[in-house]
Amino acid sequence: MVPLLLILSSSLLISPTSSAPVHSFIQCFTNQTNSPNLLYLPNTSYFNSVLLSSVQNQRFLLSPSSTKPSLIVSATSASHVQATIICARASSLRLRTRSGGHDYEGMSYSAFKGPNSTPFITLDISALRSVSIDTSLKIAWVQAGATLGELYYAIAQNTKTLAFPAGLCSTVGVGGHLSGGGIGSLTRKYGASVDNIVDAWLVDVNGRLLNRKTMGEDLFWALRGAGSAGYGVIIAFKVNLVAVPPKVTTFNVDKTLRQNATKVVARWQELAHQFDVNLYIRVIAQADTDADGSKTIQVTFNSLYLGRKEELLPLAQQSFPELGLKATDCIEMSWIESILFLYSGARVPPEMLLDRNPEFNSSFKAASDFVKHPIAESGLEEIWKFMMEAKDEPLVLILDPMGGRMSEIKEEAVAFPHRNGNIYNVQYFLRWFETEEGVTEKHLEWMRKLQRFMAPYVSSKPRAAYYNYKDIDLGRNVEGKETSYLAARIWGAKYFKGNFRRLAKVKGRVDPENFFWNEQSIPVLQGFGSLRELL
Ligand SMILES: Cc1cc2nc3c(=O)[nH]c(=O)nc-3n(C[C@H](O)[C@H](O)[C@H](O)COP(=O)(O)OP(=O)(O)OC[C@H]3O[C@@H](n4cnc5c(N)ncnc54)[C@H](O)[C@@H]3O)c2cc1C
Ligand SMILES: *[C@@H]1O[C@H](CO)[C@@H](O)[C@H](O)[C@H]1NC(C)=O
Ligand SMILES: *[C@@H]1O[C@H](CO)[C@@H](O)[C@H](O)[C@H]1NC(C)=O
Ligand SMILES: *[C@@H]1O[C@H](CO)[C@@H](O)[C@H](O)[C@H]1NC(C)=O
Ligand SMILES: *[C@@H]1O[C@H](CO)[C@@H](O)[C@H](O)[C@H]1NC(C)=O
């Protein structure tokens, strides 16, 4: 069987031609910018390499139910973004912005194919990626097309004692990540990325370039957690930098079921959200085979301590003796070195943070839940059994501790609402190769089964989910049908809890015609809405 990926480069990527609107766009854009060289049509030789340059999930390129962009615009200045918005509207094309291309449902470079699909343009802003650091004011301006790795690297080039709280994966883009939340190893101490954004530049639906003052506080509030895709195009964020010591300590401690993994994870659930905020321990669990060939679960306690080893050891002994942390498990390094070590377990030069190439050439599906009460040992055993029985489903379970600063910030402070009461986030992550037809549907079905199975263990009413771990199975907007606020609340309340209504009102103010639409963009709510919508 020929792997589908091998034929990717030819026929599969050709988009449905929609010449008239595309032609009108090209004329308009060229007239406005005099830069036709920034445009890539599907029938030109560079289109595929530009399209694939940041794609992390092959699923949407291979899926017969997805469409690809009719054109890619590779913007190198804010004026190109302005022209793209104005010309796309004038040509009745839709727009999807792409920064780092890590969207879990491919929404920056593909769309759900339906009877009323409108052709769309992908506005790729990966060239807009400069970072400027001011160590005395402890701030950075970072353009949205930069990756987290580029931001981290730029900070470390200037100082060894400042950092930024965001995700662990260095190829993730600032544009999507910072506006959707941003959780990682500094979150317990400093909050999510959204809690550390102080200003932004955004181009709105009328092509105006706005900052915090000119866009209005309600829109600036929405951009901190609800993503930006439904509101405009982010050009840059101004962020606060946070203090880290010159040396931090990292460790990975592995346990299998025979090594009491279940007991230690059970204990971790009670403790991890209450540890000293300098101590971050996440749990990564996968089905594995033991030395004697029997099935087991391998658990890794993947950790960062903001301080020296000699302080960590007594702290770990006192607050989490069940882990059995030893001096030989601990490695001291600078914060910048810890980024790739925590993510990959490899000690590599920090220059690797600048590598933007996609890490994988496979497909994945992920989803998330929040956990409010520790799962009993018997419950963990049921979950392990579920994972071990599915031998063709190499699920990775990632438990990310909350608490600390995350519990202090109010749910309505910014759009990201997952605060006090959550002890950890659980992410389900499954990767596969599409070697034959039907493989993907089988994996997706198993993931849905897993989510049903997990229901008793996780938050409910609403069953909360993290927007940056976008999951289309929660519900979606259908193109050509106006989605009511009420219908969208089914998934909107999961991502945004009590903030969803205000998000829809902001959308109604800044994009009343819903130009910035995607399958999970915030719906428009204007006036007071209907009586039922008030409830
Ligand atoms: C391997 C991997 C590891 C990850 N690790 C973490 C982690 O540790 N912590 C965490 O919190 N999250 C993590 N994520 C999730 C990540 O935060 C989200 O997928 C994020 O939205 C990706 O942003 P992006 O710019 O790379 O993606 P894109 O696909 O470019 O964009 C994502 C969404 O944002 C929109 N968008 C992008 N840029 C802009 C812009 N400039 N203006 C307006 N809208 C825009 C897109 O249209 C799309 O809807 C991870 C994802 C992957 C694939
Ligand atoms: C995908 O990547 C793997 C590992 O990096 C490699 O062995 C394989 O050949 C690649 N497959 C394709 C189809 O590119
Ligand atoms: C590519 O497509 C565009 C628009 O659809 C068309 O104008 C152009 O002639 C095509 N070019 C080639 C080389 O086929
Ligand atoms: C080109 O732009 C000018 C103003 O910049 C405008 O007057 C003119 O109508 C435009 N032409 C086309 C074909 O869009
Ligand atoms: C597992 O726990 C049991 C009982 O609590 C203990 O006797 C045993 O030493 C532990 N095993 C390991 C490998 O820590």
TrEMBL record:
One of its GO terms (molecular function) is FAD binding. Residues 65-244 form the FAD-binding PCMH-type domain. Keywords: FAD, Flavoprotein, Glycoprotein, Signal. Its cofactor is FAD. Belongs to the oxygen-dependent FAD-linked oxidoreductase family. Pfam families: BBE, FAD_binding_4. InterPro entries: BBE, FAD-bd_PCMH, FAD-bd_PCMH-like_sf, FAD-bd_PCMH_sub1, FAD-bd_PCMH_sub2, Oxid_FAD_bind_N. Residues 1-19 form the signal peptide. The keyword Transferase does not apply. The keyword Flavoprotein applies. PANTHER family: OS08G0158400 PROTEIN. This is FAD-binding PCMH-type domain-containing protein.
